[in-house]
Amino acid sequence: MQNKQLNISYQVFQSMDELPAEWSSLLQKAVEATERSYAPFSNFNVGAAILLDNGQVVCGSNQENAAFPSGLCAERSACYYAGATWPGAKMLAIAIAAKQDGKLTATPTYPCGACRQALVQYESRGGVPMKVIVGSAGRVEVFSSVRDLLPFVFDNLDDNQGK
Ligand SMILES: [Zn+2]
Fold first, then answer.
1. Residue 18: which CATH number?
2. Is 124:97 a contact under the CB 8 Å cutoff?
């Protein structure tokens, strides 16, 4: 038997103003995308913005539905739209922000497990790390790869298919 340990490192900025300009403008687009969210059930409006290696920024927002499982998170609405529109483009970074009752959340809102799985697969396809920038009214956290948020990813298909 062995005990093993995982370590991740990430950056914490005290506010959006501290972020390098490139990431703060992507995060600003995620904040704007919260305005296009449809969340009548939760009143929790999430926005995501993905920077592609072709320079495009693709935004998504959560879209809820009365048939609950039919809704979709902001992160997946963004990465699926990006994948469907620019299938060869690499996703370099995703920024995420959320508002509750119209105000930016005080702490970061991380992607859910299903979105982590979807994002990590695009990261594998692209072959480059996808930064994850998670904003809030308070601090902003920057992770250098989606894999840092989902170390034990389901990717057994990656060796043969799916790339
Ligand atoms: Zn999600």
1. 3.40.140.10
2. no
Centroid of ligand 1 to alpha carbon of 117 (angstroms): 9
Non-local (6+) Cβ contacts of 145 within 8 A are 123, 129, 130, 131, 132
How many domains would you assign to the chain? 1
Q: Residue 158 domain-assigned?
A: no
| Dist. CA 35–CA 77, nearest whole Å | 15
| Residue 151 domain-assigned (yes or no) | no
Does the residue 132 lie in any domain?
yes
Tens digits of residue pLDDT in 56-89: 999 999 999 999 999 999 999 999 999 999 999 9
Ligand 1 centre from 46 Cα, in Å? 10
Residue 60 gets the label, from left (phi > 0), alpha (psi -120 to 50) or beta, of beta
Ligand 1 centroid vs 84 CA: distance in angstroms? 18
pTM, two decimal places: 0.94
- Helix 21-33 to helix 74-85 angle (10° resolution) is 110
